[in-house]
Request: fold
Amino acid sequence: MKRAIIGALGVAAGGVAVARWLASRRVPAAFEDEATRWLGVTVNRSQDEIMPGGRVPEPLAELDAEVRVNRAPGGRGTELYARPREHVPTGATAVLSRIRGDDPRQAVRVALREAKCVAETGEVLRPDAPIGTTRPTLPGKVLDAALRRAPGEGRL
Amino acid sequence: MKAVCWQGVNELSVEQVPDPEILNDQDAIVKVTASTTCGSDLHLLGGYIPAMRAGDVIGHEFLGEIVEVGPEVSRHRPGDRVVVCSIIGCGRCRPCVDGMWSLCENSNPKPGLTELMWGGSTAGIFGYSHAMGGFRGSHAEYIRVPFADYNAFTVPDGVDDMDALFASDAAPTGWMGADLGGVRPGDVVAVWGCGGVGQMAARAAMLLGAERVIAIDRYPERLAMTARHVGCEVVDYTSTDVNAELRERTGGRGPDVCIEAVGLEAEGTGPQRIYDGIKQRLRLEQDRPIAVREAIHACRKGGSVFVLGVFAGFVDKFPLGALMNKGLTLRGAQQHGQRYIPHLLDLIARGELKTSHLATHTMTLDDGPRGYDMFKRKKDGCVRAVFRPWI
Ligand SMILES: NC(=O)c1ccc[n+]([C@@H]2O[C@H](COP(=O)([O-])OP(=O)(O)OC[C@H]3O[C@@H](n4cnc5c(N)ncnc54)[C@H](O)[C@@H]3O)[C@@H](O)[C@H]2O)c1
Ligand SMILES: [Zn+2]
Ligand SMILES: [Zn+2]
Reply:
């Protein structure tokens, strides 16, 4: 019994120590360049094919975004970059707006991916529609919300 | 139409779902005539692959007849008998052009989840979760095939349905393991797993010139089938010390190329299996890499290990020290089928590659849940249950 109490105290003390240590870590609010970072895709096409006459490709052209291109090294095609012109949330605010789906970078990611798909294959591939037998469960709803964001998320 | 749907962990049902439609100009609709279970589906059923929704149609290894094509499909027309690669490629992005089709950058419309998980996404895969694009699977009467010119392959006359079927997934997967694992004439190759994929990897190694091929499993009927139809040596890991056996069969060197065709639900004997089992249950480890560890340990110095088995997340006790100090090369991939399928169909037509023996059980779509139960528990010697919706 005594041992168990000592054991439990030990665990508790350990827990407190870990919590203190964690609290003492400085959590960076945001990386300084988060708001200005360019998002990019590499397109297996020449610069002229992607931006004929310097025209920004659809659907990127519809966004309020800065766009630039350069040749990719090693014959890999063209690097196509964009970033929103409007204010980009950073740090904890960014997490919330990403969950809500109103982070402007999400629209830019979708547009970059679609522009790449059109330039390389001629069309934007559409996913299969969800089917009716799907039961609306709670984990299913969380997953659906995450999937709705998936085209605008990721590593770009 | 009728389809086999995932309803939750270890729960399948047969449902009426809407017929697929052409959504893109490069789509085709295929009437599925044969669709097989694959070890990868067991990982979906077991709940190890994220982003499955209740109601999702599963199945990805299939054969059928084209019944409708979009206006931009030029290489196929209705009536073509086709085998379709389980992994969807666009054929024009850099990875596709380089032959790394499962890394296609245009065929997965929902890349965000896997990019966050892995730092990069895979191609779209039929019936393999929303992380891989959310495409409906092939255990159904009909299926939509995107980029049909690149993903559907006409089956030569004279090649049987049941042979061509496995050119969709098991055969190209096995071939990729031997090819990208670097099998060269004269090599000794060991293959972990004698399911459809392991058997195909063993046969590929032989066709690429390996002098000795040794396949490892525990099920006597699978070992016997591999010895008979593939024609290689076999080892039962429950009655033999695999490492010692491989050293003895290779003059103490170990195999030149080790191909793992087991995946994240590997079994094992002894404490390792108990350890991984407990950690997986407690969610402290996602995948059980028992065969991968053994392959790395057994491989000869400077040799190569190819991971064909599917893994989803993190593993524990990964022998990085052995890998580094023995100078090994480790690779893995979802299969790049499109680069191998025409050649494989040719080998099948010439009788050099046998595949139909894998179809141990043939049944209707209504038997989907029963077929998976047999396949999962390896009942009645089941190696693959094949569903034939129209028979
Ligand atoms: N890379 C790809 O693109 C791709 C394609 C298809 C399948 N796969 C994967 O390949 C793996 C095999 O597929 P399958 O259809 O042959 O599955 P399967 O379940 O029919 O076969 C797996 C075999 O591995 C054996 N096994 C389990 N533990 C073992 C161990 N420790 N040592 C040796 N053998 C062991 C089992 O007894 C079984 O016979 C699965 O993980 C599947 O997801 C990958
Ligand atoms: Zn498969
Ligand atoms: Zn591609």
User: Anything to note?
Assistant: Chain A touches chain B at residues 41-42, 44, 76-77, 109, 113, 116-117, 120-128, 130-135, 137, 140, 143-144, 146-147, 149-156 (CB under 8 Å). Residues 33-126 of chain A form one domain.
